[in-house]
Design brief:
Elements lengths: L7 H6 L17 E3 H12 L11 H18 L4 E7 L5 E3 L6 E8 L5 E6 L33 H8 L13 H6 L19 E5 L4 E4 L7 E7 L10 E3 L3 H14 L6 H22 L4 H8 L9
Length: 303
Amino acid sequence: MSLVNINDEQYYLGPDGQWNSWDEEYGSYQFISIDDIINNFVISYVGEDKIISKIKRTDVQFHAMRGIQELNYDTLPSVKSQEIEIGPTLNFVLPKDYVNYVKITWVDSRGIERIVYPAIKTSNPLPILQDQNAEYLFDEQNRENLLAEQSQTKTAFQSTNHNAQQNLDNINNADILENNHFGRRYGISPEQAQANGVFYIDPITNIINFDSSFVGKIVTLKYVSDGLAADGDMNVHKFAEEALYKYIAHAILATRANTPEYLVLRFKKELFAAKRNAKLRLSNIKIEEITQVLRNKSKIIKH
């Protein structure tokens, strides 16, 4: 019995029979669903005279979902992206399935992505209100601290143009002597040697804040999810299918009492090898593309 159960017309036109109507599932054969992963694992690993004699399906499901999370963090190509125009508030909310960011860029007029670097020396602290004597103010009902709408730190950050660069080439000798700059140029900090603007993520409100140079710019956020936020995300590339089986088996054996230690170590080694193979396969290295890049080097390429 074949694994492809639809004909060419159903694949290209989708259920509604119309071309490119967004109900097609192009390229879906390269993935395997979590339900198929669980069924295949139970068939292959669970039963009499097998590694795992008996286990509940819910336990397998739990470890399968944890395995998808771990593989999404460092093995699977799970980077998502959002393109957002920055308004006058100079911020936007993190996506609902956000785990960590890969990079943030803004797009110039040519469509080139310019990397934005984090501002590690600022934040958005809680702005506690004080009276004229610098004493804290409290609300009348709960007697808790009153807070301002926005901290002075954030206000100063978003009102300053961080792209303003001083052109040191235009400083003449008189300026150098007058300001005692002679012989005192020691270089700049590499983390600040860029003019693409800066951002920081507020961990309390989960909002990304930008400096004032981003008004009206198109920003792209590339981030990592865990692969469990939506049903459509709970798929595993077939190159990493064996790694997920090994993860489930190792997780089950490692959490069971009276499991021989050599068996746990065996599956730990097999998991490591399977993840390594998955990374190599998913790296998508093509010898022709590498050869084309190396043609720029001063060496003879034989292929």
